[in-house]
Write a sequence for this structure.
């Protein structure tokens, strides 16, 4: 005579945990009653306790103790959320979607939601922001691969590709939230562009290139950076030229 609540915020039920609860109920009975509301046809809909209801069925129970209450649709949603939050049964995404339903369907403000579930308004806001993340990251959070802390750190990145790449790295390397925050900060840091070379330095480099080219007998290009680092490139067009250049660098060659 009891049916589950489609507005139930919790969507994932751990089968192993359910089996353990079913074994406990079979041994000791149902200690905490379900909370249900009457619906048409002398049936009842669960307000709170779907996990216990599922475990009772798993244990083969035909009846379960229940408290019958008549509530509004909004109160139904609030009670279901509150029970799960008090038991810490919801993952962050289920929690966020529950708050979103209260806001969108029942027109509740974040302040009202916070007061209803006994949390601060920033907590409600932070949870609801999780739903703005890419769907794949939302799935990671729902599955427990990423925590809400990891997710908040990832929000610091603007590009979806960057978020996904870092999320996968966090999971693969089992990075902490602090490590993730450090990587995000590093990715967001503006690249340091070196100051351009002065005209005097450019002239000096061209003179060096000219002298080196004359000495080697092939074109020499100097790639110099403001950090006084770089590389020297020498062009050649045959193995014979390369051998000649090597010989000149070793100090025994004829430039001709």
């Amino acid at each position: 005579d009891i049916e589950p609540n489609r507005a139930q915020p919790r969507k994932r039920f751990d089968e192993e945990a359910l089996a353990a609860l079913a074994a406990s109920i079979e041994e000791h009975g149902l200690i905490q009653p379900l909370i249900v509301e009457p619906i048409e046809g002398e049936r009842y809909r669960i307000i709170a306790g779907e996990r216990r209801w599922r475990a009772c069925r798993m244990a083969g129970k035909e009846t379960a103790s229940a408290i019958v209450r008549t509530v509004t649709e909004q109160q139904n949603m609030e009670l279901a959320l509150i029970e799960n939050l008090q038991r810490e049964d919801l993952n962050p995404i289920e929690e966020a979607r529950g708050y979103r339903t209260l806001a969108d369907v029942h027109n509740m403000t974040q302040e009202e939601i916070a007061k209803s579930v006994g949390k601060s308004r920033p907590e409600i806001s932070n949870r609801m922001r999780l739903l703005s993340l890419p769907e794949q990251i939302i799935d990671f959070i729902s599955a427990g691969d990423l925590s809400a802390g990891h997710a908040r750190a990832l929000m610091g990145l603007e590009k979806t590709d960057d978020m996904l790449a870092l999320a996968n790295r966090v999971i693969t390397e089992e990075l902490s939230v602090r490590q993730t925050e450090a990587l995000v900060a590093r990715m967001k840091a503006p690249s340091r562009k070196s100051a351009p070379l002065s005209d005097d330095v450019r002239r000096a480099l061209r003179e060096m290139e000219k002298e080196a080219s004359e000495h080697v007998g092939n074109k020499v290009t100097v790639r110099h950076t403001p950090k006084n680092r770089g590389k020297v490139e020498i062009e050649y067009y045959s193995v014979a030229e390369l051998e000649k250049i090597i010989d000149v660098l070793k100090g025994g060659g004829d430039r001709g």
In short: The chain has a mean pLDDT of 84.
